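Duplicate of #3305? Posting structure anyway:
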């Protein structure tokens, strides 16, 4: 029987967080940070992306990161894989889990992966099949599931159609991306309620962004519906370089704090997560939006 109080946090900072950064983070620092995240109790860490360095220069050291990482027992180390060439690199680096991605927006697919939606589905189907044949689990991302900066409204029918196609490929979990942070709780409820008719909720995750400050409210709405898998990025860093307005992810430590107030269990150490956010903030050389991080700096102050 599933424990309804157990929440699973998917840490995407080392990939989704860093891909948008202009400051280059040394490979040694990336490895240090990933190890810190594991020590904070995170059991799923997306460590990099095997895309062409010309597309995402910040992750040009993907092979070195994956091959030299000191792995902790009980932690799944995943990586984003765009195509068969990327999969070949991921398999050589012995990544634990492969993540494939698709947009619910035709225009965003063209801009993000230079392919129309149907061509992208055909490509991903081959990647997923080869990954599974190699003994790797496959996670799916469906971005722009709640709105697109180019097309505006994204129809729920299209989100449902593409979600079904991804599950047909064998993904074990599908993360619904509010890529530009435009959704509010009502829309989160509408989309998840619709998908929940055909997909078990334990196989759905939410990937929120906090562009308009609704990230935590959307997480709460999804939690109330039964979603127990959420993506977060330590410090709140990240975003999509191919989507206007896609600012940072919800900070992992803010997500964990919210879960604690709801009586949910994450197994994550909030103090260590916040310390890790402080560490990465110093390396990036700019203030990060995490509320827990800001509070840690102002500890002892009272107005």
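Output from current build:
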């Amino acid at each position: 029987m599933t424990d309804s109080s157990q929440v699973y946090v998917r840490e995407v900072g080392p990939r989704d967080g860093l891909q948008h950064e202009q400051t280059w983070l040394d490979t040694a620092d990336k490895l240090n940070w990933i190890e810190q995240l594991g020590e904070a109790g995170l059991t799923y860490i997306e460590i990099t992306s095997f895309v062409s360095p010309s597309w995402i220069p910040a992750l040009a050291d993907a092979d070195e990161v994956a091959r030299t990482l000191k792995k902790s027992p009980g932690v799944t180390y995943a990586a984003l894989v765009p195509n068969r060439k990327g999969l070949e690199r991921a398999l050589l680096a012995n990544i634990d889990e492969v993540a494939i991605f698709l947009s619910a927006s035709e225009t965003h697919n063209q801009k993000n992966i230079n392919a129309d939606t149907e061509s992208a589905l055909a490509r991903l189907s081959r990647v997923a099949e080869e990954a599974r044949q190699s003994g790797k689990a496959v996670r799916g991302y469906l971005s722009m599931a709640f709105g697109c900066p180019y097309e505006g409204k994204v129809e729920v029918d299209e989100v449902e159609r593409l979600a079904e196609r991804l599950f047909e490929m064998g993904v074990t979990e599908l993360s619904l991306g509010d890529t530009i942070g435009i959704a509010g709780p009502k829309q989160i409820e509408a989309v998840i309620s619709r998908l929940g008719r055909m997909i078990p909720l334990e196989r759905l995750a939410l990937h929120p962004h906090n562009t308009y400050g609704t990230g935590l409210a959307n997480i709460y709405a999804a939690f109330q519906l039964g979603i127990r898998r959420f993506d977060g990025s330590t410090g709140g860093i990240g975003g999509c370089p191919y989507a206007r307005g896609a600012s940072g992810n919800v900070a992992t430590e803010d997500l964990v704090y919210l879960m604690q107030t709801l009586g949910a269990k994450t197994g994550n150490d909030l103090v260590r997560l916040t310390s890790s956010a402080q560490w990465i903030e110093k390396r990036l050389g700019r203030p990060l939006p995490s509320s827990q991080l800001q509070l840690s700096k102002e500890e002892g102050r009272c107005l």
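Confirmed duplicate; merging threads. The domain at 8-297 is CATH 3.20.20.70 (TIM Barrel). The chain has one domain: 8-297.
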